[in-house]
Amino acid sequence: WRVRGRTAAVCQRGTPVRCGQAIRLTHLGTGRNLHSHRFTSPLSGNQEVSAFGESGEGDYLDDWTVVCSGTYWVRDDEVRFQHTSTDVFLSVTGEQYGRPIHGQKEVHGMASSSQNNYWKVMEGIFMQPSEAFQTEKYHAEL
């Protein structure tokens, strides 16, 4: 997945993601965004999460708020993603599909926060923060 600015927003490469910031998660292979709406998921009965849009373009139902403890989403920290329109948390529990994607776990939205909706980056490319951020981070008033 690639982290992008929320729908209709520009996100400059190297800009750190703030806790509380709305983002889109775009699948690298398909160009579709992680999306949710008020439909019931087929296995768990929670809120359905699906893929939507083309080439990273979609709609406001593709926006997720980064929920973390500090000022910024730090590389090795666990975070939660809360859907900006419906307030559910992106979650995965033990429900698995049988056919046509045997063993694939259902990803869905849950109304309350729990251990099932913590996420952590496991691989990918880390972008160094921009120079403007480095200056902001270490600037101190005298």
UniProtKB/TrEMBL annotation:
Return the protein name. SDF2 factor
SUPFAM superfamilies given in the database record: MIR domain
Q: Which stretches make up the MIR domain?
A: 14-69, 70-124
Q: Does the keyword Transferase apply?
A: no
Q: Which PANTHER family match?
A: STROMAL CELL-DERIVED FACTOR 2, STROMAL CELL-DERIVED FACTOR 2-LIKE PROTEIN
Which Gene3D superfamilies does the entry link to?
Answer: 2.80.10.50
Per the record, the domain of life is Eukaryota
Keywords in alphabetical order: Repeat, Signal
PROSITE patterns in UniProt: MIR
The gene designation is Sdf2
